[in-house]
Amino acid sequence: MRRTFYRAMKYLLFSWIVLILAFKGYNKSIIEIEKRANQALDEGQYKLAKPDFQTLFSRAPKSPTYNYKYGICLYYTNEKDAALKHFELAATLGGGICEANFYLGRLHHLKYDFNRAINAYNAYKKCNAGDALDAARQLDYCKNALSLFRNPCALEVQSQVMLPFNGFLSRIEFDDLYRDWE
User: Fold this and answer.
1) I need a labelling partner for 143 at 20 to 30 A (CA). Which of 17, 39, 81, 160 fits?
2) Which residues contact 87 (CB under 8 A, 6 or more apart)?
3) Rounded to whole angstroms, how far apart are CA atoms 72 and 42?
4) What share of the chain is helix, strand, coil (3-state, %, to 5)?
5) What pLDDT digit, counting tens, does each position of 66-96 carry?
6) How far is Cα 178 from Cα 56, in angstroms, rounded to an integer?
7) pTM score, whole prediction
8) Whole-Å CA distances, 104 to 19, 45, 72, 137
9) d(Cα 148, Cα 141) in Å, to the nearest integer?
């Protein structure tokens, strides 16, 4: 009976050692993936960083940082609909990432949802006093667009002339243009 007990203890100890070593290797690979992804993101290589951040996001889906960075990769690789969900999570999870509000504003702005864009830009400006991404200008664009949508003005065609295609200039000679001004 003692012999079987010792064998069971050896087996249990051996199993724990294998699990600990495997977990250390797992952590090391996550650190390497994160380092590689952040480097690619810093260099503006969004397509290269996207699969790494997707891996990191899938391991920690409630991480605002991974959601934000994966959203950035999606945004700059023209997957804007998919990026919207990640920016929303990044803005609301934990303390939230302030810049995620700016990108939320941009995405709503591009979809002509100006009220939501204005709210997102204001949230960005509230938590980031420096306004490094120039949200104030984007806010002005949204407010102008809203006023144009509320008060549309009808355009009237005053004259209609058909021009031949060969009547258009294909090239402008700036030297000749400059001589005329002298």
Assistant:
1) 81
2) 67, 68, 71, 75, 100, 101, 103, 104, 107
3) 11
4) 75, 0, 25
5) 999 999 999 999 999 999 999 999 999 877 7
6) 58
7) 0.69
8) 42, 21, 11, 15
9) 11
